[in-house]
Amino acid sequence: MLFKRRKEPCLRERLRVALWPRRSIGRSLRYFGKRVLRLRATPHSIAAGFACGIFAAFIPLLGIHIAVALAIAWLIGGNIAAAVIGTTLGNPVILPFIWAATLEVGRFVLSGSLSGEPLPPHLGSMLRHLDLIVLWQPLIKPMLIGAVPLGLVTALLIYFPVRWTVASFQHRRQKAYFRLEKAIEPT
Asked: Which domain of life does the UniProt lineage start with (predicted)?
C-alpha cells in the first residue's frame, strides 16, 4: 500500500494518540470544525445535528452517545454526519468534567439544595464491580437527570453560532462559485 505504515503502532501508542493527538488538540478541533462547515445541507440541519451530538455527549452511559445522537437527529431532521461529529465533544479528556457537572446538577435537581449528601465511601469498590443496580441510586440516576438540562442548555448555546457560521460559510462559498463561473463564461 502506498500510505501504509511500515511498523504498526502498539496499543499504548494508539491510546496515547486517541487521548492526545500528535499535532495538538487545537488542530483536531479545527479539522472537525472544517468538516462541519463543508457538509452539504441547510445551515439549520447541520446546526441541529451538531447540537444533537453535543446533547448526546452529556449522557453518562458510555457507548450509546452516537446511537442517541443519530436517533434525535433523525427525529428532528438534523444532519446525521453533523450529529456524529458533535459527539466528539465527549472525548476522554472532557468526559470527567461533564460527568462531574451532570452529577452535581442531578443531585441538586433531586434534593433541591446545593449541599447534597456526600457520595458513599465505598463508591470505589462499587465502580470496580460495575453493579448497575447498586450504582443506580447514588450515581447513575442523578447523572441521567442532570444530563438533560445541561445537555439542552449546551445544545441550544451551540446551535445558534453553528447555524450562523455555516450559513455565512455557505454564502461566501456560493459567491465565490458564481464569481468563478462568471469569469469562465465565454463572452
From this structure: Bacteria
